[in-house]
Design goal:
The complex is a heterodimer of chains A (504) and B (491). Chain A has 504 residues and is of the alpha+beta class. Chain A has 14 helices and 21 strands. In chain A, the strands form five sheets. Chain A has a seven-stranded mixed sheet. Chain A has a six-stranded mixed sheet with strand order 7-2-1-11-20-19. Chain A is globular. The relative contact order of chain A is 0.18. Chain B has 491 residues and is of the alpha+beta class. Among the domains of chain B are: 147 residues, no CATH class; 65 residues, no CATH class. Chain B has 14 helices and 24 strands. In chain B, a hairpin with a 2-residue loop joins strand 21 and strand 22. The longest helix of chain B is centred in the C-terminal third of the chain and has 28 residues. The chains are: A alpha+beta (504), B alpha+beta (491). Chains A and B meet through helix 9 and helix 11 of A and helix 10 and helix 11 of B.
């Protein structure tokens, strides 16, 4: 098997990879080196995560409370979307399900019928995770929930650079060798095209058998050296720039991320313990850089605590995320805007698939093909889900009008039509976003189905209304038993470092 | 169907009893009172067959049919799986069972640990032997033991996935009775003519041999009688997998002799030219043969079929677009998998569940059709791959077995085999219909030894592993000893 792994690039992707490999390859004799340069800044992708990050941390045997303390983390129960349907609309995409089984059809069919004939109330009210997020409450979910209604998960909002530093410590304790320096040349085998070594500015030569490119957008190995090619998805997701800036906390922070649609893009708000991360993602064909930064700075809820930083990106992915003996993980592999906090999760998927297919020195074609198949599937499904938010908008600005009519993959068009006509929700085993996620966006952005599962009509109106009222009541009483989000963090010994009134 | 969309008010289903009632039962159970269900049953006798259905099958759960009800059914007996005889050469034996997942140790699957042990001692041929102690359901089957699945996930018996073996006629009768208590209109008749709208190719009306006619908004054909009345629904999208399952005839016969106390499970016995599937039931045997007629002499074929047995053509495959317009084909109208692993019934029941989840509400049912077709295709391909796996891995040296090659198999199955052969990894696709453990067990049992150990297994302390595995094996031994013998649990 591979005896020497070289990771090029630190940052979130590099250190997540190093930490995971150091854990899983412990005892095999495989040496892991990570090359990074303090002179090259990291993008620091993703401050908000998805619940799958907890599986990753569990795999590393990381204590969550310790992690929260070290990374200034808050809890995340979902993402609030503001103004994405019509201006003034809002909904939460939760890490939990809506309702519970009350008949042979899925719950949302019953809600759709109720909503068509009476006031069923907002769909989100039937979800415990949403109700908790809105009231800024949180409790650890039960291991064995007594009903599906009480099944939810959570993620973290943390400082990605602190997370990387935390994992760097973790990896160093497990033997990962950190090498400071800039890569200046890459040597490949003339016959196989495999990377044999890299040379640093200092002249140090580092050889390896498997190279993991975590160098960010530039793709130092996977693109600059191996010329793998890039599938450009700008036609599907045209936003290509962002400004990011942190600000002080003003009000108590809730356990959710916020995404607010703006004139030609959207703005994120991610509350940490000591600050709020903000950013505006936009398309430069519809908004100037100056307008973008002005809009961002004008809408901060607290005083900015750094200068806004501009980011440039192109949506898409490498044609192969694994090419010969080089695997691209993180931004070097592809970029999808962080609308649904997928950046870290795509890193995680890349790592887990690499572990599952960890190669021999010659990197067998079947392993490489399988890895690329799995990652392509993951990227495609995330892309469709992100596009859904754009194409379902009802806003009037030119950017949004164009997004409604933008060319879209058949895979997405069919999903939208299936829900619109008959309330059919996408369902698959392999992919991040499950039915509850799709439902949140469909209904949250006002796509109400024309019909529903006809089995719903087998239940009397009275019974259906009774079930829905019972669920609402159950959600409310369960939320009432949860502590406040900030109280939970304190009690969880996660060293809540911020304050409710704007201290940092 | 053109113009203004109508609401679906009448659904008509046509077919032979053995395929009709599994679908009709599920429809009748959940349809609202204002939807009329017309069941047109072709009452002609069908060939005898037995089916094996997992007690935890979602289909049974959706009908509210539990183990006690099944135990009371005529001819039913419970079993833990199926025995494959002669697939790896005459005299070979393999027990294929449903199974819950084996507990991993430090996140490493047990088969990887045993593989490491086998390769460390340079004895790859002992891999299956080393792994065998952890196949509790198979060991129980081999030892003539039986148990129901334990609800306690810590119990070794939680790995058991028992099945009911039952004469298909009795099973269908059980399902039919559940419909009879409902409000469906049942007509015993066969379709003789079909009227198709010139405007949109939808079905307007079906004439029956009883002189009646049925008009409905949605038509379901489970045995192919409707589709055979017109060229409008050709099987141009038929996807054959005869290359992997190279038999072209099937015979069925019901035997009167009583099975012995120890005969308790399906046996699929490979022989030169074909496959015999014999099923002991409570008071009878059912025997079916699949064979390649070109490889048998006339005498051999007659001897195989026996007196009174029906011989029918067999063509394994499925259509890709079974729902067109207001017409959907299920069961043998859409696919033919044969009796091995009760595949035909398994697919039919799965199709019935997909259909009920996607019943049309209006005359324009394009969306429902597309989703149904997509899911049908996933199910058909999943089933195909699992059915084909032991054929792909067989080691007989006579025809047609020796001609079945990996590379004649579907790409999805090849990837599964290649990944396991390469590194012992299981490839999972969307909508897997069979237990991961069953796939792994079958590949190991058919001597598919991975070329290398997963690198993660190399990190384990094998001294510690030996202790852990011994404890696990001991727990399995104790669970096995505590299980009842087949004789004790015979209904």
């Amino acid at each position: 098997m591979v005896g020497e792994v070289v990771i090029v690039g630190g940052g979130t992707a590099g250190w997540m990879t190093a930490a995971a490999l150091s854990r899983k390859l412990a005892g095999t004799g495989t040496k892991i080196k990570l090359v990074e340069s303090a002179e090259i800044g990291t993008v620091g992708v993703g401050e908000a995560t998805l619940p799958q990050i907890r599986d990753f941390n569990r795999m590393l045997d990381i204590d969550e409370a310790q992690l929260m303390a070290r990374t200034s983390a808050t809890i995340k129960l979902g993402i609030e979307f503001r103004d994405w349907g019509r201006t003034s609309d809002q909904y939460i995409h939760p890490f939990g399900v809506h309702g519970e089984t009350i008949g042979p059809a899925d719950f949302h069919h019953y809600w759709i019928k109720e909503n068509a004939t009476a006031d069923a109330g907002d769909f989100g009210r039937y979800c415990l995770a949403i109700a908790a997020a809105r009231s800024q409450h949180f409790a650890l979910p039960p291991d064995n929930p007594p009903s599906p209604l009480q099944a939810y998960s959570y993620a973290f909002q943390f400082d990605a650079s602190l997370y990387a530093a935390f994992l760097a410590d973790y990896a160093a304790k497990r033997g990962v060798e950190r090498i400071e320096g800039k890569v200046v040349t890459v040597d490949t085998d003339g016959e196989s095209g495999f990377i044999q070594s890299i040379t640093l500015e200092s002249g140090q030569l580092i050889s390896g058998e498997l190279f993991i490119d975590c160098s960010g957008f530039r793709g130092l190995l996977i693109e600059q050296e191996m010329e793998t090619g890039f599938d450009d998805w700008s036609d599907y997701l045209p936003c290509n720039r962002a400004f990011a800036v942190p600000c002080k906390i003003v009000d108590p922070v809730g356990p959710y991320t916020r995404s607010t649609a703006r004139a030609a893009g959207w703005q994120w708000r991610i509350p940490l313990q000591h600050r709020i991360g903000n950013g505006l993602v936009y398309c430069n064909r519809y908004m100037s850089d100056q307008d973008a930064v002005d809009m961002l700075m004008a809408s901060l809820e607290g005083e900015a605590i750094a200068e806004p930083k501009q980011l440039f990106f192109r949506t898409g992915k490498r044609k192969k995320l694994w090419n010969r003996n080089c695997v691209a993980i993180g931004l070097s592999g592809g970029f999808l805007e962080p609308l649904e906090s997928t950046s870290i999760d795509l890193i995680q998927s890349g790592i887990l698939n690499l572990i599952a297919l960890f190669p021999e020195k010659q990197c067998s074609a079947s392993d490489v093909d399988e890895y690329n198949r799995l990652m392509d599937l993951e990227f495609d499904r995330v892309r469709d889900f992100l596009m859904l938010h754009y194409v379902l908008n009802q806003r009037e600005e030119p950017f949004w009008r164009d997004m409604r009519n933008i060319g879209r993959p058949d895979s997405l068009s069919e999903k939208i039509e299936a829900f619109k006509r008959r309330a059919i929700v996408p369902q698959y085993d392999h992919g991040l976003f499950q039915p509850a996620s799709w439902l949140s966006v469909f209904i949250g952005q006002n796509l109400l189905p024309e019909t529903y599962d006809l089995r719903v009509d087998a239940m009397s109106d009275e019974d259906r209304t009774g079930h829905l009222e019972r669920i609402l009541s159950s959600v409310e009483s369960n939320v009432g038993r949860m502590p406040e989000h900030l109280a939970f963090i304190r009690k969880y010994r996660a060293s809540f470092a911020g304050a409710q009134g704007g201290q940092t | 169907m053109s113009g203004v969309e109508r609401r679906v008010r009448r659904i008509a289903i046509f077919g032979k009893s053995h395929e009709l009632w599994p679908v009709a039962a599920l429809l009748a159970k959940d349809l609202p009172a204002d939807i009329e269900l017309i069941v047109a049953e072709d009452g002609r006798p069908v060939d005898p067959a037995a089916v094996a259905i997992r007690l935890d099958d979602v289909f049974l759960a959706r009908l509210g049919i539990g183990p006690e009800q099944l135990r009371m059914a005529d001819s039913a007996i419970f079993s833990l799986g199926i025995e494959l005889q002669g697939w790896q050469g005459d005299g070979s034996q393999y027990f294929l069972t449903g199974s819950g997942s084996l507990p991993a140790i430090l996140d490493i699957p047990i088969h990887q640990i045993m593989l490491r042990a086998a390769l460390a001692y340079n004895q790859p041929d002992r891999f299956a032997y080393l792994y065998q102690p952890f196949r509790l359901p198979a060991r129980a089957m081999e030892a003539g033991r039986f148990g129901l699945q334990s609800a306690d996930p810590r119990s070794p018996q939680s790995m058991l996935r028992p099945t009911v073996q039952i004469d298909r006629a009795d099973y269908v009768s059980l399902l039919r009775n559940s419909v009879m208590s409902g409000r469906s209109e049942i007509v015993e008749a066969r379709p003789t003519a079909i009227e198709i709208s010139a405007a949109d190719q939808s079905i307007d009306r079906i004439a029956l041999d009883s002189g009646q006619a049925i008009e409905a908004d949605f038509y379901i054909d489970v045995s192919g009688a409707l589709a055979s009345l017109t060229n409008a629904f050709s099987r141009s999208d038929w996807n054959s997998f005869a290359e992997g399952l190279p038999f072209n005839r099937i015979t069925s016969a019901r035997g009167a002799e009583l099975p012995s106390g120890t005969e308790r499970h399906f046996v699929a016995q490979a022989f030169k030219g074909g496959l015999t599937i014999s099923t002991p039931l409570r008071d009878r045997f059912i025997e079916q043969h699949l064979y390649a007629s070109s490889l048998l002499t006339g005498d051999e074929e007659r001897k195989l079929a026996g007196r009174g047995a029906n011989v029918a053509p067999f063509e394994p495959g499925y259509i890709r677009q079974p729902w067109i317009g207001n017409f959907v084909r299920l069961g043998s109208a859409s696919a033919s998998f044969g009796p091995f692993l009760s595949a035909d019934m398994k697919l039919l029941q799965h199709q019935a569940m997909i259909l009920v989840d996607h019943l049309p509400t209006r005359s324009n049912m394009k969306v429902e059709a597309r989703e149904y077709n997509r899911r049908h295709l996933i199910a058909a391909e999943q089933l195909r791959d699992f059915v084909l796996l032991p054929f792909a891995l067989n080691r007989r040296n006579d025809a047609p077995w020796c001609r079945i090659q990996d590379d004649g198999m579907p790409e999805s199955l090849i990837r599964k085999i290649d990944q396991f052969r390469s590194r012992g990894r299981f490839v999972a696709y969307d909508g897997e219909m069979f237990d991961e453990q069953s796939w792994i067990d079958l590949m190991i049992g058919f001597d598919l030894v991975p070329d290398r150990v997963d690198p993660m297994a190399l990190s384990l302390d094998m001294t510690d592993m030996a202790r852990r595995l011994k404890n696990l094996s001991r727990a399995f031994d104790q669970a096995l000893a505590a299980m009842s013998s087949n004789e004790d649990v015979r209904p």
